[in-house]
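Hi U.,

Before I forget, here's the chain from the pilot set. I'm dumping it here mostly so it's searchable later in email.
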Amino acid sequence: MTLLSFQNLFIEFGHQPLLVDAQLTIDSGERIALIGRNGAGKSTLLGILAGTVVPDQGSVQRRSGLRVSQLQQALPDPVDRSVRDVIRDGLAHERSLLERYSALAQQTLDSAKVRELEGLQAEIDACDGWQLEQRVETLLTQLGLPAERTLAELSGGWRRRVALGKALVAQPDLLLLDEPTNHLDISTIEWLENAINSFAGSVVLITHDRSFLQRVATRIVDIDRGRLTSWPGNYANYLRLKDEALAREETENALFDKRLAQEEVWIRQGIKARRTRNEGRVRALEAMRAERSQRIDRQGRAQVSVQRTESSGRKVIEAQGLSHRLGQQLLVDKLDLTIMRGDRIGLIGDNGAGKTTLIKLLLGELTPQEGKVILGTQLSVGYFDQNRERLALDKTVVENIAGGRDAVTINGRDRHIISYLQDFLFSPARARTPVGELSGGECNRVLLARLFAQPHNLLVLDEPTNDLDVEMLEVLEERLVQYDGTLLVVSHDRVFLDNVITSALVFEGDGKISEHVGGYSDWMRYRNRQQAAPSAAVAKPEASRPAPASKPATAKLSYKLQRELDGLPKQIAALEAEILALQEKIADPAFYQQDFATTQPVLQTLDDRQATLDALMERWLELEALQSG
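Structure:
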């Protein structure tokens, strides 16, 4: 069943067209992801679907009685209102129907008022409006929300969950989500994936989280230079089809331009040729010129460069017996940690676990309550702040990056500030715009531009992926992989962590922080193995009666199990060889310079082979234990 559709939509801001002759149909049960660069018009399209933005041209048809709820990109303000009251705000329409019904029912009814009362009753029945408080309580329980706490007491991640509850309590037919994973920790993102996949209605979402996209979306709608294109299937399928479409477009444009150039040469021939020229050919040339003038060329790819500087000492940071509390909460408990030059460490943990606090302790911005931190020599620290507190919102992009100068020095060479900002996809006009007027993704690009305009040998990135489009994320990943300094990263983006870090500090609660080699997926495999391992009870022998030494009995396996056991070493050896070859391929610095569609299947294959190897090892140990009795 079609919930909503629009045809021939056109909308522009200033002189920039965002949607040109756009068509879209949304059916029941769909989970549609909107993809496009920052500023392409994704949030504008979401506003059109919500009815808060009116297009310049075109028509929008909605199913009669369609219920739409939207999760805004911005976090709800930390106001002094209870979570329960904020959730109730999501039922404003239903509550107004009940109030009108109650007021009308107390009046003296004539035939007109009876019909009005019957109409209100039908509307309330249709939106299940008679049990509003029960719906609020049910949703508070489902989301695990602290009903009586105020928003001012909650972290950004919890306020995001409250905002989602406000959108869900209305039981919408169409749920609109604008960057729903921002400010959420990984465990909450996984919860959100399950919530969306089990949601009965349709969902249209904007997100930069590629893992989230892959797990949730059933269709991708791409906004590229004002055009809407729908791609069936998941995100991986979209990447493959999009690359093929761009290659075809490039070939077709090259052929068109060659033909146009030939016709331009013909029209400029001598007097004799002009006397005999074909007027139909002239009209065709004019049509080609008009067609070429309407073409919107694809914007170039960002060119991010990370400056090199003098190397730090071999030992970058050493923490000894580090402990720190926030109120009654123990965030860090007796942590010993050594960070060496070239380490690439990701911090993984729930919101409020203490990731940002640990970074401040390690950098000396916060004094530990116990233990000490020793900083290495020749350190030059670059810090990316997720809260953007270091940006002057009333100043332009140019002023935030270069102050009063016209140029920045990049790797020993002066570059004009406008040229440098074009590498981060800022046009000259946009570079002179106050930062307070920019989108969230553009603000993060300003932070990155300012960070990389200075040389550093220790980069600390606190949630650098928020609001960045996927293309910019991939460029950032490539440059960080090539970075030869030390890297500390806090991020909820699982793919980003897998592609950038080589070890992880995992916050397990109660101040315990464990270190694991590899990326996020490696830690998940370790965690899953630990959770699946049986808790074998170990019986203690009596001290006064030592057990007599005896040869353990050997149990005979069935023929089928013995065949399986005999074949396992060969399978394990083959898998280990394949995994080693994949790891060597991934370790090549050129590997991450390829596009995501090329690298992701290789990374996924490595994950799959590692999971299979883990399962075979578990089975081998199980059969060995059976055989030994």
